[in-house]
Give the backbone structure.
Amino acid sequence: MMKTSKALWLIVPAAGRGTRMAAQRPKQYLPLAGRTVLSCTLARLHEVFPEARLCVCLDDTDTWFDPAAVPFTDWRRITGGPERVDSVMLALDAIADEAEDDDLVVVHDAARPCVRSDDLQRLKAVLATEPVGAVLAAPVADTMKRADANERIRHTESRDHLWHALTPQGFRYRLLHDALTYALRSGVPVTDDASAIEAMGHSPQLVSGGRDNLKITHPDDLMLAELVLAAQAESYRK
Ligand code: C5P
């Protein structure tokens, strides 16, 4: 049977143990705005990608996950790997028999619950026609210092064309699968999905997004996220 439209896949890596938070539970399960971080993230994604086929990457020892927090109708649990890149790769492998080469795959960290709906909408619009892929990002605002091993300033980096890479990041299935396979085999450091695509010689599109799309990493980020969500709710009401 002919497929009329391409599937949209959503991969949410949530298999981290969040050791930098030093909390009682993994950071994606910490309480935020009356629910958990993961639940807030999934709800935001569902507003803009309700049709997506979701893969949630979870640690196999995870006992915190609550399927009731998943608002998507088509979703599956994937066992994550030792690093984020392994978790994403395992999700791509798990859908290999169903995904078409040019299906869109959007990857978003569970630890980024504050991503704005309007940023997601703009990213989605760019991805609809973008052959390489696109990344939500924010231009660097602070002066950037390069330090030596003793934390003394070596020099000031130019801020020109310097961006913070955020998530979501979206690519075509085959390109992302090939890029991550190559990166894992060749030892290219992959701190986000775009770095693997870059290592293949491609240049994904940057899509300017809000600086409030913070990644919960340290304990005080949770308080900031709480404030950001409250401010966003207020501005939606106006
Ligand atoms: O640790 P970090 O904040 O960089 O992790 C980014 C995202 O990747 C988090 O949502 C985390 O749960 C996820 N992750 C994963 N598998 C790992 C490590 C991190 O899915 N092995």
